[in-house]
C-alpha cells in the first residue's frame, strides 16, 4: 500500500504554532501593554506567551503519536469549572449566597 493510502486512512495531526506566535507578537504592541498597565498597574513581560510558543515548537519536534498522547494527557489534567462542585454542593452554595432573594419579585 502506498503512503497516500495510509494517510487517507488515518488523518495526520497538524500542529500549528501560528496562534502562539500571533499572541506573542500582540503582547509587545503598545495597545496591549497600555491595557495591561491600566488594568493591573504593570506592564506584561510576555513570558507566558514565550513559554507557549516554545512549548508548541518543542512539540513539533516529536512523533505524531507522542504529540497525540501529550495533548490528550494535558486535556485530561485540566479541570473544568463545572466539575468542582456536585449538583448538591452547587445548590447549597447558591442558596447560601442568593437564598435571601427567593420569593422576591
UniProtKB/TrEMBL annotation:
This is Uncharacterized protein. It comes from Buddleja alternifolia. It comes from the Eukaryota. Pfam families: PANTS-like.
